[in-house]
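Local shape tokens:
==================
===
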Amino acid sequence: MAYQFPQITSYEPVAANEAILIASGDLRLSANQKCWAAQAGMEATVIAAFAREGITVKRGHPYDPAEKHGFISNQRMGMDVFKSIDPNAKLIVAEAVWQYSHHVLAGLRSHRGPILTVANWSGEWPGLVGMLNLNGSLTKAGIKYSTLWSEDFTDEYFLNGIRQWLQTGEITHDASHVRDLNAAALPAAEAELGRKLAEQLQREKAIMGIFDEGCMGMYNAIIDDELLNPTGVYKERLSQSALVAGMRLVSDVEAQAIRAWLDARGVKFVTGTNEETELTNAQIHEQCKMYIAAVRIADEFGCDAIGIQYQQGLKDLVPASDLVEGLLNNPDRPPVYDAQTGKELYAGKALPHFNEVDEGAGLDALVTNRVWSAMGYDPSTTLHDLRWGDPYGDQYVWVFLISGAAPASHFIDGYAGAVSERQPSMYFRLGGGTLKGVSQPGEIVWSRVYTMNNALHVDIGRGTVIELPREETERRWNLTTPQWPIMHAVLHGVNREQMMGRHKANHLNVVYAPSPADADKALAAKAAMFAAMGLHVHLCGSVQVG
């Protein structure tokens, strides 16, 4: 059912002891309907928390009995909702699930009152992911906001935060874990490597292939050309319809060779016969064709990295791209050959892929690939959702989780430890398999490129991936999305509140290094390259360099 546009011409002024609550939702009706109960429950607890502080919270838009949810479900609806909201009102954006930031961005740009983004601390309902995306989008847009999160909205951190917001209009989070890079303090060898790689990028320039921009309303995931091009990186704007057309040119024999390679390496495909609910061999076959088509298109346009949007448009034509994305990010992957010459394309190399066309992750993946390859390390990288976290023993262990792009080289036992399961039908009607596994223990560098104050910035830090008992891994999977690859990450010198208060995106990039010392050296070289490219580099946590 299409959204009916109301004729709203005025708004009622909001009193000092009142606030307005809105909820940005998904663009997909099935997701909004399934997630509404969780959102409604979260809103009730938020409203109750503010009531205890003497603030009456009113909803800025009603529940729609026809659509069976109360989310703002598209950009036009968001614009209409804001017509009836006092632009000076205290405004709460409450998110219990994934949301499309562009649904509300227009209204938030012109809102003059204090803005508070709030999320539930839950793995099952990814409000944290949705809120972080909105926060990154607001940061890029230069819109002032405050942010909070809570498991039940009764803890002192949350309550102290809303009291500060009500009194001052803003919330201050501890950012003592962040310091600006002092490039002069970097070790000489790594500083020189980073600088030379940046100079090479300026001379030779690189191309990111963009299969349709603006996926899932992620305004923060678009880097304007005026900021990107000075780094030496340019965009090739590609159409996902070209990807479908390219798939039609791939022969069944070629696709079967990809499947045979994966079978021989030990990937376990959990298949069935019901196309609507199970992963089928036909879906996998189409994904193998997509993999070949993506590599061939990347080669045709000379791309150094590519990003497939998938979730809108392509989801109604072909199975999911997630298996494809994971393969691309691994130098050890099925070979793809030029259709005319028979030459192997990107032989022995990863073709970095950035899930959901997150260009901040794409630029990071490109830099990572150059630095890690130059240092002789495995350049396999991926982005992950900063999905959730929970203590285990005396450590705080984050759940990094992503639908696609995780390479099998990150998993315990590699391809032999990988499983492909059907994507949930709520989001992926035509199915398709993931590349699922448990990330191996080891040392990582994590980072995030983002736009702030009309300039490119990057936060970068260190972490350790740990191995948890199988039952704990299963518990965490079952509290999130069990079809997706998982990483158990402990961040060095950054606690939960610091990470949430600082992070400017739903995604972060991760890459392994052979040892702690090697990870420190690689981080230094990566920081040096970013700095030489003109980015503002911020070291996070207990980083031992710069």
In short: The chain has a mean pLDDT of 96. The longest strand covers residues 381-392. The first helix runs from residue 29 to 52.
